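Handout, section 3.2

Students often ask what a structure token actually looks like in practice. Rather than define it abstractly, here is a full record for Carbohydrate esterase family 4 protein. The first block is the sequence as you would receive it.
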Amino acid sequence: MRFTLITSLVASVVLLQGAIAAPHNPLAQVVTKCKKNNTVALTFDDGPYEYAYDLSKALVAAGGKGTFFLNGNNYECIYSDDNVKRIHYLHEQGHQLASHTWNHKHLNTLKRHDLEFELGSVSDALERIAGLRPAFMRPPFGEYNNLVREVAASIGETVVIWDFDSTDSIGATPEESKALYDKTISEKPKSILALNHEVYRTSVQDVLPYAISKLTEAGYELVTLAECLGEEPYQNVGKPGKKDGMWKC
């Protein structure tokens, strides 16, 4: 009986030591909808791209702002002169900048080292270019797992999905995307967190002006993601860096 008790105590100590030695890694929060009523967060993936100016002008003309989830090296290198100008322009117009990873890969297929590169490189780029350390990231294709959330948490970023998809990225016609906006607006949700893409001309020049008009007519305020959540858009805001050898893809 005494031997059994001692063995049990030793086992308990070993288990306790193991728990102390292997702490649970925190997971990033996952956001799927806005918190503030009567708001719409129009978000745009896959930039920086040439249509950033058109999107900004349409939003600003309606008294609104948007959120741009940017890649490091997807359609174009984030460090190109044109993209640096686009990033500064979007920030100066009051839009929110966030991470969409470096190469737009399927994150739930990657190991930790690769995830750290995919997430960290974009955050580093935005800090170098604009002095902004983003507080939010969106996984490409909306794909994530606990390892993705661990890595996002380790660099202080929240994972963002959506509750409305214009489906422009999977070949929807402008008419189909407009119909989706009409249907959602008719259902009168308290708020909308909308997925769109910055790189499709018909979506930017046809669908978004229509959606902006319909949303404002329905009484929604066009705000950034951070505003619709009541949170800060950036972890740090500082001075842009000077272009050097790190500014490359």
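Discussion prompt for tutorial groups: The chain has one domain: 36-237. How would you have guessed this from the sequence alone?
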